[in-house]
Each structure stands twice: as structure tokens, then as C-alpha cells.
Design brief:
Strand content: 15-25%
Protein name: AsnC family transcriptional regulator
CATH topology of the largest domain: Alpha-Beta Plaits
Number of domains: 2
GO biological process, one term: response to amino acid
CATH superfamily of the largest domain: Lrp/AsnC effector binding domain/regulation of amino acid metabolism (RAM) domain
CATH architecture of the largest domain: 2-Layer Sandwich
Number of strands: 4
GO molecular function: sequence-specific DNA binding
Low-confidence stretches: none
Strand order of the largest sheet: 2-3-1-4
Keywords: DNA-binding, Transcription, Transcription regulation
Oligomer: single chain
Pfam families: AsnC_trans_reg, HTH_24
């Protein structure tokens, strides 16, 4: 594991890009008080080092029609490293699954899925959870309101990767 030391300029760049990665390099340089070539070089270095994993557009699912967010706790019967990896690969391949976390203590996984309605969730649950012989328990919560959603990581100096 290579340790990456981030200076104040790196932190300002990351903060601005997390707020809006679609800004131009010229606008970024203006906001962080550095030259455009310096910003371009720093962004490339942060990308090459894996600090910036990718740049994406965050879409509000409610703007695309009815949306239902399911927060699903999953416990497995067998809990070997291979069983965890198998379940993780299986669940992460599903397009409506937007997040998947291994957690402890409690269930083995917490999965976030964005579906259109309860019928779509029911179809997803039948296909994914009822067909697997290694799932002990599934407990689902449905979001009634999204109070906050951020994809931002806390900006800290001296990050290790």
C-alpha cells in the first residue's frame, strides 16, 4: 500500500471537484487560486494515483419517474470469505443495486436498491434473495424521504491507498 500525501492545493482541488466535477480546468484554477497548468497536472496525478477513482453524474431518481429506495439487510448461512465474495459479485451485478456494504456486527451485508415501485422490488427479491441457498435472512426497509444524499468523501490530508 502506497501512502499518498496530499497538500493544501490537492485538498482544495478535491473539494471543488466533489462539488462539481463538470467545471472547466480554467474555472477550477480560478476557484483554488492556482494556474491552469498546475491544476491540470494535479488532477491527472490524483487520477493516476487512484485518489480520483472516476467522475460521474449524480442523477435524482425521482426526476425519472416513480422511485422506491430499498435498504436491505442480508445475512448469509455460510460466512466464509468465498461465500462473501460470491454474494457480493452476485448482488453487485444487478443494475438496480446502487450500493453494497459488508457490515459488522449484525447482518452480513447492507444493500441499497433503487426500483420503480413495490412490484419491481418484489420481482427483484424473488430473483435475488429467494433463489439463493445461502441466504439466511433478508430484512428490507423502504425510504419514505431522502433527507440527505452525498457522494462526497471526507477530505483529509495524508490519505493512504
Amino acid at each position: 500500500m502506497t501512502r499518498i500525501t496530499l497538500d493544501d492545493l490537492d485538498l482544495r482541488i478535491l473539494s471543488e471537484l466533489q462539488a462539481d466535477s463538470s467545471i472547466s480546468n480554467l474555472e477550477l484554477s480560478r476557484r483554488v487560486h492556482a494556474s491552469a497548468p498546475t491544476c491540470l497536472r494535479r488532477v491527472r496525478a490524483l487520477s493516476d494515483a487512484g485518489v480520483i477513482a472516476r467522475q460521474i453524474a449524480i442523477i435524482d431518481p425521482s426526476k425519472l419517474g416513480p422511485a422506491l429506495t430499498a435498504v436491505v439487510e442480508v445475512s448469509l448461512d455460510r460466512q466464509t470469505a468465498e461465500d462473501y465474495d460470491t454474494f457480493e459479485s452476485y448482488i453487485c451485478a444487478e443494475p438496480v443495486v446502487t450500493q453494497c456494504y459488508r457490515v459488522s456486527p449484525g447482518p452480513d451485508f447492507v444493500v441499497i436498491a433503487e426500483v420503480g415501485d413495490m412490484a419491481q422490488y418484489d420481482e427483484l427479491a424473488r430473483r435475488l434473495f429467494k433463489s439463493s441457498s445461502n441466504i439466511r435472512n433478508v430484512r428490507t426497509f423502504f425510504s419514505t424521504r431522502r433527507a440527505k444524499f452525498e457522494a462526497n468523501a471526507p477530505i483529509r490530508p495524508n490519505v493512504s491507498r
